[in-house]
Amino acid sequence: MRNRKRSPGGVGWAAKRVGAGASRAGLRTGAPPPARLLVAALFLFALSNLAAALSSSVALLVVARVVAALASALYTPNASVAGAGLAPLGARGRALAIVFGA
Hints:
This protein is an all-alpha fold. It is built from 4 helices and no strands.
């Protein structure tokens, strides 16, 4: 039987790899309609978090969290572009602050 203990350094390494992969996935979406992409990303994020909450194993939890990270990588840059694009020129900074919750 394998040793299933995880070191904090190993978990941090895995989290960095997921983050790097998620940012690459956000760049590869092409140019679908922004509203459709935002809704799809939010739906995927909610569904993956539901799967994480109902997971019965660590493996399923990790897969659900990776999918949630990919959905977040799709949503965040597109939401900031949409928010800044809808605001007047002088209020774009404030619009970005609202998108990021500041």
